[in-house]
């Protein structure tokens, strides 16, 4: 079984992906985590990495390659916590999570992710909007898809 979970930051993708992975004994691939690791290695924030990705498709191509390698390694026993996993794995069971921006922002602030540096709900909402705008632009340009 291949499951892809998409949605805005803070919508609960990772929570659901972990639950499904445990319940169905699947490998959980957290693409947001892969991107955070990449940003950290480059000494950038997620927003900075997203801006870099708008200028060069190398960031997205590297993430795409990682996802495809994970699929090859774990075959059909995987849940992708990935905004565009549905595009790469059309045969997957596709789940889209939607959350009120305030609820999503509260979740992000509550997790206290250092790399997202959101200390307030209003700042987290701004970051969510920036990330989504960046990703919409990139995915439309690279893949011709609208993530909404």
Written account of the structure:
The protein has 148 residues and is of the alpha/beta class. It has helices spanning 13-24, 31-42, 46-55, 58-74, 85-88, 101-111, 121-143, and strands at residues 2-7, 27-30, 78-81, 93-97. Helix 3 (46-55) packs parallel to helix 7. The two termini are 24 Å apart.
Query: Largest beta sheet: what is the strand line-up?
Result: 2-3-1-4
> What's the count of strands?
4
Termini Cα gap: 24 Å
Approximately what portion of the residues adopt beta-strand conformation? 5-15%
Count up the helices.
7
| Topology order in helix (H) and strand (E) letters | EHEHHHEHEHH
- Which residues form runs of ≥5 with pLDDT under 50? none
Give Rg in angstroms. Answer: 15 Å
Mean pLDDT: 89
What is the global morphology?
globular
Provide the structure class: alpha/beta
- The proportion of residues forming helix, as a percent range, comes to 55-70%
The main sheet comes to: 4 strands, parallel
């Amino acid at each position: 079984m291949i499951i892809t979970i998409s949605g805005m930051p803070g919508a609960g993708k990772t929570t659901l992906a972990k639950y499904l992975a445990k319940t169905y004994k699947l490998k959980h691939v957290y693409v947001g985590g892969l991107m955070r690791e990449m940003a950290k290695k480059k000494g950038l924030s997620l927003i900075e990495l997203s801006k870099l990705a708008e200028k060069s498709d190398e960031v997205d191509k590297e993430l795409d390659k990682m996802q495809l390698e994970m699929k090859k390694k774990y075959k059909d026993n995987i849940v992708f916590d990935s905004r565009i996993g549905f595009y790469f794995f059309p045969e997957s069971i596709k789940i889209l999570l939607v959350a009120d921006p305030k609820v999503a922002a509260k979740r992000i602030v509550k997790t206290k992710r250092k790399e997202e540096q959101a200390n307030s709900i209003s700042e987290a909402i701004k970051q969510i909007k920036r990330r989504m705008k960046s990703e919409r632009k990139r995915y439309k340009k690279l893949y011709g898809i609208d993530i909404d």
